[in-house]
């Protein structure tokens, strides 16, 4: 739902500034879809290289990747009101981005901990294998990098997509 809301809200903001074109829907969808696909690839590669065998399905990972859109929608919406459609720039836009990013990263850190760092006696660890200290440390580092660095890049990419100030397919100042 947040994925579709992000696409519609970006198009609405472009329309309110008189710059709506149908291509904006496709451009916004493509960017958001690429972000979700890249995020899933990062999660699957992390699970593979760190030898994490969890019970989480692809739907769980897609659901976790969708939470970033709530923060992006909030940032884009508030920035559109306070910055007159000039993107995330300004103290208000970056302040809202900082808050929503940190809230999302903290949520992912706490939630994915149970997927990437199962305790030795949980039902998700049926073989009761103990996780070596070095392996647990690498998993913790991956979880931190994924929750903060990767999410920052993806959320910044989504909020930096400016569909309200330029006309898609035409050069500014051109005919």
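Sequence proposed for the structure above (175 residues):
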């Amino acid at each position: 739902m947040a994925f579709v809301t992000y696409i519609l809200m970006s198009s609405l903001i472009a329309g309110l500034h008189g710059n709506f074109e149908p291509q904006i829907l496709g451009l916004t969808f493509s960017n958001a879809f690429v972000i979700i696909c890249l995020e899933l690839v990062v999660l699957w590669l992390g699970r593979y290289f760190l030898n994490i065998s969890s019970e989480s399905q692809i739907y769980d990972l897609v659901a976790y990747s969708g939470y970033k859109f709530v923060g992006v929608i909030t940032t884009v919406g508030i920035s559109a009101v306070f910055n007159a459609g000039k993107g995330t720039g300004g103290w208000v836009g970056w302040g809202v981005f900082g808050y929503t990013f940190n809230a999302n990263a903290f949520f992912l850190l706490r939630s994915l901990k149970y997927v990437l760092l199962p305790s030795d006696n949980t039902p998700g660890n049926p073989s009761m294998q103990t996780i070596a200290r070095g392996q647990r440390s690498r998993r913790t580092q991956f979880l931190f990098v994924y929750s903060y660095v990767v999410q920052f890049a993806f959320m910044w990419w989504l909020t930096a997509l400016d569909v309200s100030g330029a006309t898609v397919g035409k050069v500014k100042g051109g005919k």
